[in-house]
Sequence to fold (360 residues):
Amino acid sequence: MASAPTLCITATNLLILLIFFLPSLVLSDCSCDEAEHSDHPINGGESLKYKLAAIASILVAGAAGVSIPLLGKKVPALNPENHVFFMIKAFAAGVILATGFIHILPEAFERLTSPCLGENPWGKFPFTGLVAMMSAIGTLMVDTFATGYYKRQHFSKPKQVTADEERGQEHAGHVHVHTHATHGHAHGSASPSDEESLSDLIRRRIVSQVLELGIVVHSVIIGVSLGASQRPETIKPLLAALSFHQFFEGLGLGGCISQAKFRFSTMAMMVLFFSITTPVGIVLGIGISRIYHENGPTALVVEGVFDAASAGILIYMALVDLLAADFMNPRLQSSLRLQLGANISLLLGTGCMSFLAKWA
Fold:
């Protein structure tokens, strides 16, 4: 299918732009005087040790989290047809929802309402809410237009039936039709069930790639912020918290990727990008740590806007494309036990991720 590589290339290009241009945007010569006084002393040598540990820990945690759902073919409990998979997806969707609401959105509000920014215009209008709202609407537009485009590409040109095929079908009767349908070579347009299956597959592919896009944007910012920090007491709690954060996020993304049924090369590329984004951000942060000012006006505005946009994407994807799609599924609604399990898993996912907000 042409949709997966095209969208994946677009996501790749955006990731490259973020990696190379975000650091240059957040470099600032001026910083807020109030932020110069901190309870945590600066120690570049010791903080570097924790940053290197964070790179290894986050890399392993992210790769493990995103890879677990992809093992569904080998582990029966992780197969998409299994009830356990529904609960795992609900847990992961709760993690992504809490990431948007509890982790990212408050950070965006904090940055864009910082006293280090001028009162006009940042103090006179809720830009964070505006950016998050427009990001969610933009995600909806991309979602619907992309899905509609690929549906039209696949379903607007039904296969024409030739005169010879029509005569052959008349002679063979129902047996001929049954035999070809069994092997997936039915003449004419695709059956409603085939169209529905292909439509779901297209939808899942778009969802998984848009979701990864939202996660990647935030991961770059997290990595740069951590790598630029010179205070060991700030980095220590982030090391463990961000490792769990990346693991749970990977679990949610991996569940979407596994259902999208990409080719192996595409799946490998998506797993690789998710796994390395935060570590690469940390490396970039280390490189610019001497000239990066986390409370400089430019850094606050750029990171705040990117955080707000990322929050809008993740909140929309979690509520609309993950939770609504699964919780309205007839299979889940027909089983009270499965419904209870999915709801409990959702609450556990949001609870675990919300708890981590104390440190990260």
Summary: The two ends are 39 Å apart (CA to CA). DSSP finds eleven helices and no strands in the chain. Confidence is low (pLDDT under 50) at residues 1-5, 26-31, 34-38, 168-188.
